[in-house]
Amino acid sequence: MEHRNFVKIPEGLNRGALVEEFGNHAVTHYEKRLSEREEYDGKIYLNPFKTIYIWAMRDRETNSGYYTTVNLSFGNRKRKNYGGS
């Protein structure tokens, strides 16, 4: 039986693999979050790629974290008005 909080980490994890899986904006968001926690809380992360992967997977599954801070519908883009009032 698989544990509920278990996240399987892929082999050979690097920044390129993270960008491919989650996108550049998400990886940048989590890198900034890591640096803030290191600076303000004094936490040390020995493998930041694994930490980012775990955070991103959990946020994606629960639709929280990065996925609630970013407007994924591109609502700020102008739309064509086809006959609407």
Question: Notable features of this structure?
Answer:
about 80 residues, mainly alpha, 4 helices
What does this protein look like?
With about 80 residues, this protein is an all-alpha fold. About 55% of the residues lie in helices and about 0% in strands. It has a domain of about 55 residues.
Chart the SSEs and their pairings.
Elements: H1 15-22, H2 24-41, H3 48-62, H4 66-69
Helix pairs in contact: 1-2, 2-3
Give the number of DSSP strands. 0
Largest β sheet strand count, sense and barrel closure: none
Q: Helix fraction?
A: 40-55%
Mean pLDDT: 82
Short description:
By secondary structure, the protein is an all-alpha fold. The protein has 4 helices and no strands.
